[in-house]
């Protein structure tokens, strides 16, 4: 009996000290506005031990319901933090593969990107923006969905079209005085590796390069990005030619002048 | 626990992972490591245990006395539902095994535990056209790269630590029937590969790429009439037409789709600085469409690794009409005759003859049958050229009443060969070649055919028949100096796996029934067998770690036999598929 008391005392002490630790972490006191059971876990993975805060200036928009869970349009907009941004990470808490992209916007592009993603079930979709002062700013939105988007075979699996058109890029540029918008679509199955007998096969790196070959957009992509993905970037100014470069995890490289 | 606690755990895991990777002390594979592979017992860094392809190891802890105690240490499953033929030879370097599986998959395994370190699955298009199962025969290692050929005819270099793609090059168009199944050959910083696709009227070629960057260095077509190229400072330069000019040994335009695919890869001998590649059948199979020798089909080619030029050739089956590919591995070995050292090369051909050549110049030294029956030729002349038995060449369909089917004949060996892809072993200790062979015949007839891109280009029909009720496979110990067969082991199903001999006076090989077997190298007595659960069609290796000798072999039934097996099918249809690596050692004393 005495032994048991000692044991529970000990565990209470451990509990107390760990509570103490978490209050030392400071910002961790903020409750997740999306009330996700995965928040602690995904935060550790993507933000690690760095300071962070929920921040309404990081806007993630998505339709209220994912009509097609394999093609959900989302937009991440951190324009309010423009000029301060080091990198942006987006993820979906309840996807089997959470990570959607890591983006290094640079100073020649607006910190706003639109693309389509896959979701496996209703999930928070989050973006975390690391500013140069070393703080993560986290925004997010709850996306409702019927689900199944990550474990359904790509349509490319039933139709060999992609085999002869892999990496083909269709693009458009919409210009205005202050900016130009690039929208492009790439033919790629973006297989997640979660479907039986279809290995993961996805675009891993994306760069938009200026005429001198310097990257103005750098992005790492992950399997939750939709099949035949569509991206929209807004460049500051409306001058010069740009080249799009992509590489997939099979080592295929695709390049096109936009 | 709180979030903070979990964060700490995460960091520790990362640290441990980092340490264990560092603990493997990756030194990288050098040209020297590859050239010395037959002498170094702590690694296997070349296909064939040394570029000469002798498949002989000086290890002898496992020997005729101790092999009875051999025990499995671990078995690793390739997983998935992709259990097809597994013809790979594993490689081992610094505690890591690199092995390929069916459907262009590569695995890195911790050899101490059998744990997977990483896996690479190529995403293959549905349109791949391998003729003879979705197999792969292994990787090449160089620096920190693991290089292999995929079924959609690409060379892929992976980072040895992570399995991520470093570079990838298209060798040929899979839609025209090309694929890659052989283990690439690594010589002096170049990765050298052939191509598969002889059943689709491709044009065979051997190509060298810079192993570090994947840049093409030279390309050598293996069909007479095609221009070779070499790249100097990034500039593509003409490097001579193979055979000098088109049309010398081919009629009309047939050289343009002539086949001669060097699909089994090659060997290399540093003594003479030559690559040895064998070439496949001429296309189409119907030989009446292409009177002439049809160079360089069904031949052995010696190619300079530096210039990509053909230094000598030896054609085993000129104007082949039986699908007797001449791809079989050329094994360099030396022997003494009249007090002189002969730089020889031994090769057991699909056509049933074993050839001993002078590897410096390709001159024929001697040849003899290594199977019990050969019908298509009466023998070899003094230059090693076959003396045809015209009654055993399938008839010309043009000579038949309706022009649709030529006279059917019985030919021995069958088109799957006296020996197929499965590599021989040469033991320096016994001076014998250990040849995995098969005894079978075929009925074969010719049909009219015309070339269409990406379609089978045979012009022949055929069916295989076994010669004996109780066996097809025969493992033979053959003296290359006399042609004498010293012993034989008979196997019910056809043999389809490679052979390994060791200084422990042992010969290892697997059979389709699933057994890894060990024989006394001198007497042929079976000393050990263990059933791996599926048929063995891969090549065993051996190496040493922490003072103990290990033996590994891949298990997984498949390959060409179940696809083309004819009447033979009933002997093998009960064999179940698999996909795993087995590793063995002696119990610690």
Concise structural overview:
Chain A is mainly beta. Chain A is 14% helix and 40% strand.
What would CATH call the homologous superfamily of chain B?
Answer: Quinoprotein alcohol dehydrogenase-like superfamily
**What is the subunit organization of this protein?**
heterodimer
CATH architecture descriptor of chain A: Sandwich
Shape of chain A: globular
| CATH class bucket of chain B | Mainly Beta
Mean of pLDDT of chain B: 93
Which range best describes the helical content of chain B: under 10%, 10-25%, 25-40%, 40-55%, 55-70% or over 70%?
under 10%
Kindly identify the CATH topology of chain A.
Immunoglobulin-like
Mean pLDDT of chain A: 86
Number of DSSP helices of chain B? 4
Count of distinct structural domains of chain B: 1
Total tally of structural domains of chain A: 1
First-last Cα distance of chain B: 46 Å
Secondary structure: number of strands of chain B? 40
Q: Give the total of beta strands of chain A.
A: 16
The number of helical segments of chain A is: 3
Topology:
The complex is a heterodimer of chains A (258) and B (589).
Chain A: H1 2-24, H2 39-47, E1 52-54, E2 59-61, E3 65-66, E4 72-77, E5 85-92, E6 99-104, E7 109-117, E8 123-131, E9 136-145, H3 161-165, E10 169-175, E11 179-186, E12 203-209, E13 215-221, E14 230-236, E15 243-248, E16 253-257
Parallel strand pairs in A: 1-9, 3-9
Antiparallel strand pairs in A: 2-4, 4-7, 5-6, 5-8, 6-13, 7-14, 8-9, 10-11, 11-14, 12-13, 12-15, 15-16
Chain B: H1 3-23, H2 31-35, E1 56-57, E2 71-77, E3 91-93, E4 96-101, E5 105-110, E6 116-121, E7 140-142, E8 145-149, E9 154-159, E10 165-170, E11 185-187, E12 190-193, E13 205-210, E14 216-221, E15 227-232, E16 235-241, E17 266-269, E18 274-278, E19 299-303, E20 310-315, E21 331-337, E22 340-348, E23 353-358, E24 364-369, E25 377-380, E26 386-388, E27 409-411, E28 425-426, E29 433-438, E30 440-446, E31 460-466, E32 473-478, E33 485-491, E34 499-502, E35 506-510, E36 515-520, E37 526-531, E38 541-545, E39 548-555, H3 561-564, H4 569-572, E40 580-585
Parallel strand pairs in B: 1-34
Antiparallel strand pairs in B: 2-40, 3-4, 4-5, 5-6, 7-8, 8-9, 9-10, 11-12, 12-13, 13-14, 14-15, 15-16, 17-18, 18-19, 19-20, 21-22, 22-23, 23-24, 25-26, 27-30, 28-29, 29-32, 30-31, 32-33, 34-35, 35-36, 36-37, 38-39, 39-40
